[in-house]
Write a structure and sequence with these properties.
Elements (H helix, E strand, L loop, with lengths): L4 E2 L2 E5 L6 H19 L4 E6 L3 H16 L3 E7 L2 H10 L4 E5 L8 E7 L8 H11 L4 H6 L13 E3 L1 H14 L8 E5 L9 H7 L3 E5 L18 H9 L4 E5 L6 E4 L5 E2 L1 H14 L7 E5 L4 H9 L3 E5 L3 H11 L3 E3 L5 E3 L8 H15 L3 H4 L8 E7 L3 H5 L2 H14 L4 E6 L5 E7 L3 H13 L5
Parallel strand pairs: 3-4, 3-5, 4-7, 8-9, 8-10, 13-14, 13-15
Antiparallel strand pairs: 1-2, 2-6, 5-6, 10-11, 11-12, 15-16, 17-19, 18-19
Amino acid sequence: MGKYFGTDGFRGKANVDITAIHAFKIGRFLGWYLTNIKGERARIVIGKDTRRSSYMLEYALSSGITASGADAYLLHVTTTPSVAYITVTDGFDSGIMISASHNPYYDNGIKIMNSKGEKQSDELLSLIEDYLDGKSDFTKENGDLPLAKDEKIGRTFDYFSGRNRYIAYLISIATDCFKNIRVGLDCSNGSTWNIAKSVFDALGAKTYVISAEPDGTNINLDCGSVHPEKLQRLVKEENLDIGFAFDGDGDRCVCVDEKGELVDGDGIMYICGKYLKEKGRLKNDTVVTTVMSNFGLYKAFDEIGIKTEKTAVGDRFVHERMAEKGYSLGGEQSGHIICSKYATTGDGVLTALMVMEVLTEKRKPLSNLLNGFERFPQRLINVRVRDKKAALQNAELQKAEKEINRELSGVGRVLIRESGTEPVIRVMVECESEEKCEAFCTRLSSTLEGW
């Protein structure tokens, strides 16, 4: 991770950690760099979520891009995967998504994609960071980047039509009609609020939508994939067949079965992995997971002949492994699911469509599709700290971790890591009982207090 760009872009509190000045300078550098590499005017497409600060960052980015002689195309409020899709299909040189994903409304972020719709290279992000800090080799020699003049000044275009084509693409993926299926959708007051319902309505579902009234300050507020409790209540109260909850920028999805029980990314990977294997569509009978996936998932996959490969946490690492070896399915417990046939990044609405394909073909309730997958008890605590690296190196934490790992040898595990997107340390314990998970997690997290 760099100084500004972590595992999922440049993220922080709006106008504190990430400002309009940062956005303008990122636009300046990206527009100048891509235009010079290309040898002609670069084209950059921008999407944003529903946070109040997204407008500020959108205009600052587009100002920087056009000042450097490139053109900016605005998708307006849309999802991260839609930006990736449009970047590839419409031949853009780069895509940018303005979002802090599942974070509260007062945070925001900038995710930069390459022309293939993938996370931008670390090399280019390092160059951008150097420019932000005044360390760029070019600016040392020549002063600031040159401003475009006369007819070389860039333009900004309204590109709302791109989002509509993405919606049409999602609809085209479905293999069956959803008529008579009662579906709950929790749009997290975020990017999917004007996409998910359109897709499911077009496919014939009877939709029940919540958290689809964004006001700039309610994104992810007690709703969405991180807080699916309202969706669980909706499914039970309205006797729905299934529910889907998305996050703020629409690249995550978790499910709720007909009983109101939560089905996270591990459950989704089990359902879809098993189905794709049966259909002969699971490349090398392998699913890519991160180290956060539950032990129960690996046991369940072993029993049905599915192999797994593990990566570090972050959907970019999952995608990189999938692209390297040609795998068709991978994802994270948090609900970032990647199906390489259709997308280069996690896509919440696409994930929901994949689950619906299994549901409609098998003609079984979602709870039955999970037969064979027994989850190990798992507890995750996020501890806010001032200095993540120092917190991880403190002697009390390391001693407690060694002692607990000895006790859990062969029957569980401890995973402690710094977040790539927030100032927190994530402490996870997995073992045979809820009580032990809770006790060990509490013990470990207590050693991080004050750091």
